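Narrative summary of target 7.
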Amino acid sequence: MKKKAVSILSLLIFLGGCAYLPFSGDSNTTFFVHKTFDFGLLEKVAVLPLENLSADAAANEKIRKVIITELLSTGYVDVVEPGQVTKALIGLGLGGTVTFSTDDLKKIGDAVGAPVVIMGTISTFDRPSIGGVSIPEITIALWAVEINSGAIVWSVTTTSKGMGLKGYVLGVSGETMSETTIQTVKKAVRTLFR
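Modeled conformation, tokenized:
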């Protein structure tokens, strides 16, 4: 009986220790919200094409669409339709561009009627294999720029790994790339309306 209790206690200690491993739904978020900018008064934003530093060529559009959906789901802001943003970028000679000057941002915002534009970078959008298990990992940085002043009024960097303790202990994949993408973007967008 005592041997069984020690075994159970050892297992619980091991599992508790695993909760601190980098595989346990690891997430890290750092953010900034400008202290004088009131996002509650903001009615419309435009989400620009994202810079994609990942190996997945389509990651920028995958994540951009989730950002738009998450912003709309908050009920706080309207989002300029992506086709209008693309049309404005092409009309301004900025098609295919993902880095913009403050003058460019002013022109884009004016063209689509959005006082704030959201830009970003995808650093990681991958499924590295750890211990024979494929784990989704996503790192994004997003920031919002007020077009009249050119000031960054919000910035967030967040990383998510789509594997929890259960996946690590049992050796099975946790979340899908889609689930990890949604989780990552939700964490980022949540910081905007704190």
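The mean pLDDT is 84.
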